[in-house]
Amino acid sequence: xxxxxxxxxxRAGVRRLLAHHGGGxxxxxxxxxxxxxxxxxxxxxxxxxxxxxxxxxxxxxxxHALAEVPFLSSSVLATQALLGCEASPARDAWLGRLAEGTAxxxxxxxxxxxxxxxxxxxxxxxxxxxxxxxxxxxxxxxxLDAATADLLVVAAATGDGPALFxxxxxxxxxxxxxxxxxxxxxxxxxxxFDCAEALPLTFQGSRVLADALTAxxxxxxxxxVGGAARCVEMTVGYAGTREQxxxxxxxxxxxxxxxxxxxxxxxxxxxLSYAAAxxxxxxxxxxxxxxxxxxxxxxxxxxxxxxxxIQLHGGxxxxxxxxxxxxxxxxxxxxxxxxxxxxHRRRLASVIGLEDGAVDQHPGGALSP
Length: 369
Description:
This protein folds into three domains: 5-104, Acyl-CoA dehydrogenase/oxidase, N-terminal domain (Butyryl-Coa Dehydrogenase, subunit A, domain 1, Orthogonal Bundle); 106-203, Beta Barrel (Butyryl-CoA Dehydrogenase, subunit A, domain 2); 207-351, Butyryl-CoA Dehydrogenase, subunit A, domain 3, CATH 1.20.140.10. Helices cover 52% and strands 16% of the residues. It contains eleven helices and nine strands. It has helices at 5-20, 23-34, 52-65, 71-84, 89-100, 114-119, 205-241, 253-281, 287-313, 323-336, 341-351, and strands at 105-108, 126-130, 133-144, 151-158, 161-167, 174-178, 188-202, 243-244, 247-248. Helix 1 (5-20) packs parallel to helix 3 (52-65), helix 4 (71-84) runs antiparallel to helix 5 (89-100) and helix 9 (287-313) packs antiparallel against helix 11.
């Protein structure tokens, strides 16, 4: 289970680029110089034709730099969903634009907002066919990068089961309300549909969603490992220069123990994340189990490491200007994305006979007709 030399080159190139550029400039250069948006898109559709390992390498560097680019939402989540749909001129054209980096997309798949769900008054997103013209009505909460996306890939219930539809964000009947998330580096928005025109992409929504979310979770573990690695790096560096009682705090045994624990947590998470990536790369039918195990472990490791980074930095670690507090917010935000650690553990327990209760296939709530 080893990455190849070309993966190291890819990591190094992305790290150098992100060290000098951020935001829109970074995204443009990632597309033009690295071809990152099209890594997982087949060559016949304008991409590079690579797979999970290359995506993993890029995501780890994006996490290390806390890069504010739509790679996860567009190049992983939406791209994998589109690749799972049946070939069509519209689908292929969108995949070509996404691979070039000239457009971005996002997948709107979560169902009820937790607060509204308790009251039972949150509308589910449903699709209606009227003489061959499909329209969507309902609401999708917490959609990643929805405010800047050029395409919404929306999961909706139909009479024949869950399906995926392409919707233009500026179409009549579509309304976006931006949220103020805990992690400001990962924008989200609530999207409401009121008889919005939609183009059907596939009526095998359950299968496509399951595969797309498995790929997204695997990629997210790489980002979490990259972020955790950065927390360890800057904490070790700080402990070596910050002095108390005339000596660096890193020389105290208690601090050494905490730094060692951070490193052990990081390497354990990294091993599980890499195992998930290689499992996907090999086409293992049970790769989802490896991914769920990695997502649970990496989420908790990143949260623990980011928390320790703030503790060992002292008061400076929670200031707005410091990188530690941004990693802390990213760690907690990413832990709940695509299923909290507890959800993934229940999912694994239910299939190995440790728990009788059933778990929804999709962590955001199962779609039903």
